[in-house]
Design goal:
alpha/beta, FAD/NAD(P)-binding domain, Jelly Rolls, 4 domains, nine-stranded mixed beta sheet, five-stranded parallel beta sheet, 41 strands
């Protein structure tokens, strides 16, 4: 159930990239100048805007990661900024729902105008193994991870004398020969050349850099001569370039190419795999008028609005905005920025009842840095390369970087780089692992009822009690698990979980748990079955209310089967097999020397063991693994027996007398036949 945000906004912009931020800036500024009180909101998955062109320099340790991001709230004065992931658009109701966090949950917003600046997503599923083994370069965290991974591999290579291992550790493969791929390759080569001298057992000859590109020349959006110049410069500096080649599959140790060849490596940087945003693909289902989606981009009118839906707008990589010649604008940063600015002004004009204006921007040119104080550029038909192009790249992008403070910080970083070596600190933030251990002291609460479900738990040591409004529901001991029902049903936890002694839990994160369940259907089915035991008091009462109350209050002894077949713990397995043959039961309670029952043996596991191993039939029953069936007193009510079996996820229970000696067995299937 979602919470409704109390305010309806005159305009909501989705996306915190170039298009979204610049649209919010221009819209808010235009409304303030006109004296309008219209409210504007921007919703983004992060609270900062990333200056994407400088990410390769962060990966190469040429820039601090803090200097290529800007807080959106600082950039968009007068705009309500919300951090969250939009899960659904109900365009027919002018409503959207975002996920604000595990505790806040879903929040719904209503609006009068909506602007889509969602960009694109990354989909690596088309190349098996790429998603699991490749490093991406989409945000600052990715750039920091590449830098940390690169330096970590050099540190490890410095400690091994095994040549094959060293070569694998220092073999780096970059997939994609566009701007990101070429710039990242250049930066990593620069970083390796700058820092390898600090490692006694790492030589420059130990490094291998390979770039795999599906086209016949690098930087395909630039003139071919610039792509060929780039290839020549990078080859001279040690990059092996494979053109007209595609990655077919990736493993932890190798990249397989479509031509049958492969590259041995443990280090892959992937700069390809852009995919349409799911919300854009779903527009056709909820839009109040037909919308056109071409290659995952929504087609707009020249003013960035959607035909037939004057209150719906789009800009940036998720949109197809026509240029003056009618061709779609390319999905690049310079077009996204200009589209965002125009769309923001047009939204203000629409709110003020004025005529909107068409998109008329013509690309000035494109630039790419290739490392070693070199770059290539194509500006208004003129082509540049080398140091002058590198100076142009830095000057132009420094000017485009938002905020005076960030400009000064980046300029300072670049100046220091000219005179001092690059930073080789291994900045490797240690985040929570998908599988970890959690320690609890007696009385510690792991989670409360209605807390968001985060994890699946296995008890390594100790005991956990699940409580429902103070009442004990179930005790979870060593080698048992809990938490699966909440995760399988995507709901909050039903109970409170409290440690009754010093307890160690193995914790599996929600995302990892769901991947395991989806990959192994038999495991998922067993968890579905065990989840049935975790029912709330209200659910249990509803279940029991389906049965006649007068019969539920009768003692178990009225319904149990007193013809109990059991086996002494000291009997042989041969004796147990004979009893199974004589009885129709699949279970035999095991009677200890003192007459008590500590569990039961099951027929199927014994026969399976006979098929797969050499089973000594003269061994005693005590050596067999036992199944823990619930024990219920003969004087207990049928209601108590059903409650116990339901909580234990058991279809049978052993009935014991006042001396704890088994005197019968009760099964749910037998009860259903006798209760009317």
């Amino acid at each position: 159930m979602s919470n409704q945000y109390p305010e309806e906004f005159d305009a909501i912009i989705l996306g915190g990239g170039f298009a979204g931020v610049y649209a919010a800036q221009k819209l808010s500024r235009a409304l303030r100048r006109s004296g309008s009180s219209a409210s504007v909101a921007l919703i983004a998955e992060e609270n900062h805007m990333v200056f994407q062109p400088m990410l390769p320099e962060v990966a190469g340790a040429a820039l601090s990661p803090r200097h290529v991001v800007n807080p959106i709230r600082s950039l968009c004065k007068g705009v309500n900024v919300f951090k969250g992931q939009v899960n659904s658009l109900q365009l027919d109701q002018r409503k959207l729902t975002l996920h604000a966090g595990d505790f806040a949950g879903p929040v719904s917003f209503t609006y009068k105008n909506l602007a889509l600046c969602l960009g694109a997503k990354v989909d690596l599923s088309r190349i098996p193994g790429m998603q699991e083994h490749a490093l991406l370069l989409q945000n600052v965290g990715d750039a920091m991870r590449i830098r940390a991974h690169f330096i970590s591999r050099i540190e490890e290579a410095n400690l091994t004398s095994h040549k094959a291992t060293k070569r694998r550790l220092l073999s780096f493969v970059i997939v994609g020969g566009g701007y990101s791929g070429v710039e990242t390759a250049g930066q990593l080569i620069d970083l390796a050349q700058a820092i390898h001298k600090h490692y006694k057992h790492v030589d420059w000859a130990d490094f291998t850099f390979t770039l795999v590109h599906s086209r016949d020349h690098l930087l395909p959006t630039l003139h071919r001569s610039l792509g060929e110049y780039t290839a020549a410069q990078l080859k001279r500096r040690g990059l092996d370039i494979l053109l007209n080649r595609r990655a077919k599959a990736v493993t932890a140790n190798r990249v397989y190419l479509e031509d049958g060849s492969g590259i041995d490596t443990n280090n892959i940087v992937c700069t390809v795999g852009n995919a349409p945003h799911p919300l854009i693909l779903g527009l056709e289902k909820t839009a109040p008028a037909p919308v056109s989606i071409e290659r995952g981009r929504v087609t707009t009118l020249p003013d960035c609005s959607i035909e037939g839906i004057p209150w719906l707008w789009a800009a940036g990589d998720c949109s197809s905005v026509p240029q003056t010649d009618g061709t779609p604008s390319p999905p690049t940063a310079q077009f996204a920025l200009r589209q965002g600015e125009l769309m923001g002004r047009n939204m203000a004009r629409r709110l003020q009842g004025k005529q909107t204006r068409p998109f008329t921007f013509k690309a000035i040119g494109e630039l790419a840095t290739i490392g070693h104080h070199s770059a290539v550029a194509e500006i208004k038909g003129l082509r540049f390369s080398g140091a002058f192009a590198w100076w142009m790249w830095r000057t132009i992008y420094l000017g485009k970087l938002p905020g005076l403070e960030r400009k000064l910080r980046v300029l300072f970083d670049w100046t220091l780089e000219l005179f001092f070596p690059r930073d080789i600190n291994l900045l490797n933030p240690r985040f929570s692992k998908d599988i970890s251990e959690t320690h609890l002291e007696p009385g510690d609460t792991l989670f409360h009822a209605n807390d968001p479900s985060f994890s699946f738990y296995l008890v390594k040591k100790g005991t956990i009690e699940l409580r429902d409004k103070g009442h004990l529901i179930k005790t979870i001991g060593e080698h048992e698990h809990f938490g699966e029902r909440a995760l399988l049903e995507n709901r909050p936890y039903l109970f409170e979980a409290v440690a009754t002694e010093a307890t160690t839990l193995v914790t599996i994160a929600k995302d990892t748990f769901q991947k395991i369940v989806s990959a192994d259907s038999s495991f998922g089915q067993s968890l579905q079955q065990s989840a049935r035991s975790y029912i709330s008091s209200e659910e249990l009462e509803m279940l029991l209310n389906r049965l006649p109350s007068d019969q539920l209050d009768k003692p178990v002894s009225d319904y149990m089967s007193s013809k109990l077949s059991s086996v002494p713990a000291t009997a042989t397995i041969e004796d147990a097999l004979a009893l199974f043959s004589q009885s129709s039961r699949n279970y035999l309670p095991v009677i200890e020397a003192d007459g008590s029952c500590q569990g039961a043996i099951q027929k199927e596991p014994i026969y399976m063991r006979m098929l797969t191993t050499k089973l000594d039939r003269q061994e005693i029953v005590a050596t067999l693994p036992k199944i823990s069936l619930p024990l219920i007193s003969a004087t207990a009510t049928l209601r108590q027996a059903l409650t116990l079996m339901t909580r234990s996820n058991a279809s049978k229970a052993i009935v014991i007398d006042s001396g704890n000696v088994p005197c019968g067995m009760i099964a749910i299937i037998d009860l259903l036949e006798t209760i009317h």
